[in-house]
Amino acid sequence: EAQVTQNPRYLITVTGKKLTVTCSQNMNHEYMSWYRQDPGLGLRQIYYSMNVEVTDKGDVPEGYKVSRKEKRNFPLILESPSPNQTSLYFCASSSLRGTYEQYFGPGTRLTVT
Amino acid sequence: RKEVEQDPGPFNVPEGATVAFNCTYSNSASQSFFWYRQDCRKEPKLLMSVYSSGNEDGRFTAQLNRASQYISLLIRDSKLSDSATYLCVVNKDDYKLSFGAGTTVTVRA
Known about the structure:
The complex is a heterodimer of chains A (113) and B (109).
Chain A: E1 4-7, E2 10-13, E3 19-25, E4 31-37, E5 44-51, E6 54-57, E7 65-66, E8 76-78, E9 87-94, E10 103-104, E11 108-112
Chain B: E1 4-6, E2 11-14, E3 19-25, E4 33-38, E5 45-50, E6 55-57, E7 60-65, E8 70-75, E9 84-93, E10 96-99, E11 103-108
């Protein structure tokens, strides 16, 4: 089954404790992206990657890091989480050929206290 | 000005009714337009792409007005299962997408 997976699905942590949210896709997509979704706001892009070892900032990259060492994986790293990073996070992937349709993971609900 | 703006609703409609709503976008160079559906903070899923000539998929009709920079979605014969938040999505450049905050539709029995 074609899918995007994220782990963990739910996470409660404390300020300053480094964490990683994993994202993996099995569709051989070149493009992967991380978004955060907050009430009243649309999905906002954090980082994206066009291919292995190619990453770039989205609209709200501050406080986040990513890496793309393998085509299927695109982890999101919060080196020193803060309460304003409490949000719902989605990973997405798409092919660079065709319609730009993005396939989303199930989401990670992060709470930073 | 937001890149994509939507009326948040909610639109409360009875089963069988027709409901329609728009979104406006600011980037006149945008080439690709989509409607995504999101259920209760789950992942967004593509509902339909929006083509220049307008397109229909069953009970759903999407229209694009480039001159006025808006797209619309119309749902006919609403079902309870149509209750969701509908996200308007527009490409910014290449493969980057801008998402509206969503329009909530609630269909009541």
